[in-house]
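Exam revision sheet. Question 4 asks you to relate a sequence to its structure. Input first:
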Amino acid sequence: MSGSSALTIRGQNGDDWESLYALLSLKEVVLNTTELPYVSEDAFRERFGSPPANTHVLIAETSLPSGRKRIVGAAWLEVQRQRRRHVGRLTMIAHPDIAGGQEETGLLRAALDFAEQWLGLRRIEALVFAEDARALALFQAHGFEVEATLRRCAIRAGRYADGVLLARLAQRGGEGGRYEQA
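Answer key, structure tokens:
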């Protein structure tokens, strides 16, 4: 599917929960999240249908030949509170058809632009499974650095899996891509 249709990034609409439910019900997608499979539609709608005020959701969709839209990815950016209000926690999912492709990269770039240029966040964190080399490479290619390995952080397909905490410090404007120092 990569490169076959134009990608649109937009905010979440109230009726997106059904397409998000179908996307997160795919075995290949839920495997790379900390979500549980087999969640009921009602529980999913309650949790994902109307995100909290501090969570911004970007939807990636493509156009089908019929003209209908198809949600192929989503990014949740949870703005932290109080003394960590400069930090956003980023979670992304992508349909297997676009994983590793230009569409997934476009979604990540849009989420980072939104976080840094519109929300003014200075630190973006992401947690990925240590075995997910594709996701690790994607985030690292966009300025994320490994900060920690979280041993046995979640159960994944019947066994404990390590997670990798990644973080990206926002670039200062006009300084040639250097990252801010602590």
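Marking note for examiners. Confidence is low (pLDDT under 50) at residues 174-178.
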